[in-house]
Amino acid sequence: MKKLRLIKNIKSVAVALGVITVFSCNTNTDSKSASGSKSENPYQEKVDSIIGLMTLDEKIGQLNLPATGPITTGASKSTDVVKKIEDGKIGGLFNIKDPKNIYEVQKIAVEKSRLGIPLIFGMDVIHGFKTTFPIPLGLSASWDMEMIEKTAQIAANEASANGINWTFSPMVDISRDPRWGRISEGNGEDPYLGGEIARAMVRGYQQDDLSANNTLMSCVKHFALYGAAEAGRDYNTVDMSRIRMYNEYMLPYKAAVEEGVGSVMASFNEIDGVPATGNKWLLTDLLRDDWGFNGFVVSDYTGIYEMRAHGMGDEYDVTSLALKAGLDMDMAGDSPNIKASYTYALKDALDQGKISMSDIDKAVARILTAKYQLGLFDDPYKYCSEERAKKETLTQENRDYARLVGAESTVLLKNDNQVLPLKKSGTVAVIGPLAKAANNMPGTWSVSSDHSKAISVWDGLQQTVGNDVNLLYAKGSNLDYDLELEKRATMFGKDIPRDGRTDKQMLDEALAIAKKADVVVATIGESAEFSGESSSRTDLGIPQVQKDLLQALLKTGKPVVLVLFTGRPLTLVEENETVPAILNVWFPGSEAGLSISDVLFGDVNPSGKLTATFPRNVGQVPLFYNHKNTGRPLGNREGKFEKFKTNYLDVRNEPLYPFGYGLSYTTFDYSDVKLDKTSMTDSDTINVSVDVTNSGDYDGKEVVQLYIRDLVGTVTRPVKELKGFQKVFIKKGETKTVSFTISVEDLKFYNSNLDFIAEPGTFHVFVGTNSNTERMKEFELKK
Ligand code: BGC
After folding, report:
1. CATH number of 2-388: 3.40.50.300, 3.20.20.300, 3.40.1190.10, 3.90.550.10?
2. Atom 12 of ligand 1 has which residue's CA nearest to it?
3. Which of 294, 393, 422, 777 has its CA 20 to 30 A from that of 259?
4. For the chain, what percent of residues have pLDDT higher than 90?
5. Read out DSSP for 718-756?
6. Please, are residues 725 and 739 in contact by the beta-carbon 8 Å criterion?
7. Considering the domain 410-600 in this protein, what is its CATH number?
8. Which atom of ligand 1 lies closest to the CA of 222?
9. From ligand 1's centre to the CA of 269, what distance in Å?
10. Of all atoms in ligand 1, which is nearest to the CA of residue 69?
């Protein structure tokens, strides 16, 4: 694609107005981070000069991010986009595909609008662009920060070649509630791990140069606490104490800010009774003043407008509330049916004296700064390269990497009698409604993915072991007995066509096929859109028709391997009791079939570990490992009921599979925990180590996890908190020493004054294979 001239028209207006110094266009002065430091904005002078040239309409235009993309999730649909761009009334667009389209649209902004200010192009590049990696919850189960960073880097490279320069990722909302469908989009329940992943993702997207044409500006979301929606129902109210927020929920957002994330998306929910979108404490006092963020804040989809339904007032009240709170850009507010938007209401709000020009200028300045940081004033077309797009998108190299990541993210939940790995011989029956559902393999929130290129389990097995293994197939069942539910769970082109046969006919066929096989691979679970946005559930079981299919298959007496698709922790008590092998594959991405085959046949030894607890039943929810002890803890670890203790009459307290849990084809033995000393002060450290021996028959990777418990505090402390982990490769028969260093920073928490401090006293340190570990040593933090 030929490059066009730079933004000449902005230059000529500037010359005419005598502010030519603004446009030296040297965008390489700063790049590392948009926000991480409180350093001066190197573009301030340029930005101020542009603002000096702008009309009020043009200023409000910069704050306008209309919805034009393929997916509409809220009330909005904007109109007259081209005319508005020409009039300088749009600051950016999102979810437009194709570098050619983006180029054309950018050309309108740059050549036809009065000031020629380039647009920013955003997209939900959530877990890969065209090359799609596992859904984030799955990816987090890899516990591999380098790998996670690289997936973001590949996504950035592909997306930026296709005209995108801003991604609405990472989503770092802690969630302890698998009813909430968006748990699939996050990194599970742990703040420390969530923080590490947030950092890795931001690094991967932004690298150390936002202005490079192969990086994206990252947008951490949804700020804040979105994952704590009451009853797991999406968009529902959140109500939480400050101390819980600070200790258990805020850390991943803060980590992203420390890593220099360029932008932040406000969440839909309320916090302390004020929607995040209009919450000044959140968006200014905490985010900017305490954490030092100086990038820009965008609303979520129609978030400003939604404050009307929240009961925050009329269109002038809600827009001014948002702007004054520090919300810079209005996503999807520009729609004729939405009056409560920056586009439609801000001018009047100014006339009414509800906001000032300086409030508007502040927001405009942040958006223009982001455009400078991205190098858009230097070359507005730098991200549109059809040639690069063709060469660098969905390359074999990227696909091979996605195949590996898909395999590394699988979690082996059960493997009795070493049913897995399978032998590459004999007859394998592949049965279940997900076996051929290629379009479901990329999982939820995969707007940029090319679903037609995704590889189903069936195709993956054909490609990998098709010559050695006799593969048989039967669909076995539909996704669900309930047609209406099935429709809701197969949206966005991810349909699993309903079979015209009766349930009985499908089942009979499946049983006949199973009987011919040596082993049955049951590909069942949720469809991709069973989780994700607006996909909350109250029943966390495998859909009943598939449960029935599975039990019928087990009755054939053939060994059954459950290849479980899910976007959330499910309740699997019955399956855990009856199925010999369960491999949780989440939604592995574009290469799903190959990733799954690699694990099933032992080319990759599974090493994923759960990052969200799997409860026994829905009644236990919310259930998480880092809970408090209470005043009436159970006195036994066997889960026996005790009257007047904190437990249930009808189910034990422990989950089915705890946080950090995951098996391997090999086994790992741990030595006792060793400490180099048993006390420390805040100026020294303790070395903690264990010897881990691979005592099984396969080489493998183990995620060694370190947890701490602070026994006494001025506020109650969790029974365990993850404070370190290492993923180590250990050959069979080999022993590796794994060491961690504990410093006072690992012992700090927010006390009731919200001071971040460590209190002297006794601590327990645990090291083991999951959060249930009891392998422990004690140490003191001295004054
Ligand atoms: C979601 C965001 C997403 C946005 C733009 C909203 O509905 O909550 O996560 O980034 O849409 O597509």
Report:
1. 3.20.20.300
2. 124
3. 393
4. 90
5. BS-EEEEEEEEEE-TT-EEEEEEEE-GGGG-EE-TT--E
6. no
7. 3.40.50.1700
8. 9
9. 13
10. 12
According to the model, what pLDDT value does residue 80 have? 84
Q: What pLDDT is attached to residue 75?
A: 59
Q: Give the residue whose CA is nearest to atom 4 of ligand 1.
A: 301
Question: Could you give the 3-state DSSP secondary structure of residue 268?
Answer: coil
Identify which of 120, 300, 445, 536 to mutate to test ligand 1's pocket (most ligand atoms within 8 A of the CB).
Answer: 300
Of 548, 541, 549, 544, give the one whose Cα is nearest residue 566: 541
Q: What share of the chain is helix, strand, coil (3-state, %, to 5)?
A: 35, 20, 50
Going from the Cα of 243 to the center of ligand 1, the distance in angstroms, rounded, reads 28
Instruction: Please state which CATH number belongs to domain 666-781.
Output: 2.60.40.10
* Residue to substitute in 301, 447, 492 for testing ligand 1 pocket (most ligand atoms within 8 angstroms of CB): 301
- C-alpha span between 620 and 17 (Å, rounded): 66
Q: Whose CA is nearest to atom 10 of ligand 1?
A: 168
* Residue whose CA is at the smallest distance from ligand 1 atom 5: 301
Atom 2, ligand 1: which residue's CA is nearest?
A: 300
CA 27 – ligand 1 centroid, Å: 30
> Which pLDDT value is given to residue 34?
44
Among protein residues, the one whose CA lies closest to atom 11 of ligand 1: 301
What is the position in ligand 1's atom list of the atom closest to the CA of 73? 7
pLDDT value of position 97: 85
For a pocket test of ligand 1, which of 168, 329, 491 has the largest count of ligand atoms closer than 8 A to its C-beta? 168
Question: Which residues face 727 on adjacent strands?
Answer: 703
In this prediction, what percent of the chain has a pLDDT beyond 70? 94
Q: What is the mean pLDDT of the chain?
A: 93
Burial 665-704 (b: 16+ CB within 10 A, else e): bbbbebeebebeeeebebeebbebbbebbbebeebbbbbb
Whole-number Å distance, alpha carbon 121 to ligand 1 midpoint, is 14
| pLDDT band at residue 39 under the 50/70/90 scheme | low
| Tokens found for residue 1 | 């694609």
Give the closest residue to 418 by CA, choosing from 605, 555, 584.
Answer: 605
Higher pLDDT, 16 or 626: 626
The yes-or-no verdict on residue 351 having pLDDT over 70 is yes
pTM recorded for the entire structure: 0.95
User: What spacing in Å lies between the alpha carbon of 221 and ligand 1's midpoint?
Assistant: 9
The answer to whether 382 and 376 have CB atoms below 8 angstroms apart is: yes
**Domain positions in the chain:** 2-388, 410-600, 666-781
Residues within a 6 A CB radius of ligand 1:
73, 124, 168, 221, 300-301, 533
Of 334-348, 363-377, 418-432, 508-522, minimum mean pLDDT range: 334-348
What amino acid is encoded at 629 in this protein? N
Catalytic residues, by residue number, are: 300
Question: Given a cut of 50, is residue 594 above it in pLDDT?
Answer: yes
Q: Is 164 exposed, middle or buried (0-12, 13-18, 19+ CB in 10 A)?
A: buried
Q: Could you tell me the two tokens for 471?
A: 């593969």
Extract the tokens encoding 747.
């012992």
